[in-house]
Predict the structure.
Amino acid sequence: MTNILCRRLLRTKQSKYITLVTRSMSIRLFESSDHAKYYAQFRPDYPDTVVQTIVEYCKLSYNNLNTAIDVGCGTGQSTHSLKTYFSHVIGLDVSGKQIEQAKLKYHGINFRVGPAEDLSFLESGSVNLITTAQAIHWMNHEIFYKEVDRVLGPGGVLAVYGYGIPVENKKEAHKLVSHFYSQTLSGYWDKERKYVEQHYQMFHLPYDGWTRKDELEIVKHWSVDQYTGYITSWSAWQKYLKVHPESKDLQTLHDKLIELYPNDEIMTIRWPIFMLLGTKPMA
């Protein structure tokens, strides 16, 4: 199996060019790669409707949107879209490696390394919006919510959101990936993963009248190779590889998916989005 990651261009059914990783990609290539790099490369980004929904909610309180902070920002995928609407955008993550990748990809954003529970670099009442995407299940909620309440101005918004388990457009493909997710990687997912699987149903925001939105979704049209690249970014797979460094399980999954999507057929994958929105009282 080659250790060279080749790339080529494939015209999609919509006649737009997208960059694909060819079938010669080496699954083992990612074993020695920095996790943050292929997390940034393969993780699906949120549609514009997510930030638009959040901004519309903010505008119930504010005419001018000045400062937003994305807590647990990772490689900045969920942060950069805020720049369109806010004068000052901050991205915060506890991982220095993730922040390094964010700084390489996105400019004009103040990326910082630090825990979600410590926002002491921000003045009290100085923020219009705090977002956290696919990250709150890692936080100490009591401490984080205290900091949120301190730094948000009256009418400030806390937006907590994420996406669930992917659903592929062919039932047999979904069965294969689900087995890999729940059986092959059983015992390798962090215990906090259950909160994502349950779409944060057990979480509550600290403000009365907070609301949920569950009607949005991420939709991607990917090759099998791109989708396999995404799976390599799963933390459970990285843990699995450390225990089973010679594993061919992902390669086997890849080959079975190729059988279901022959001749460079494009997969359609959907991730359900869940969102919690709350507003700090005006007084």
About this structure: The longest strand covers residues 267-279. Residues 1-33 have pLDDT under 50 and may be disordered. Residues 92 and 112 are 5 Å apart (CA to CA).
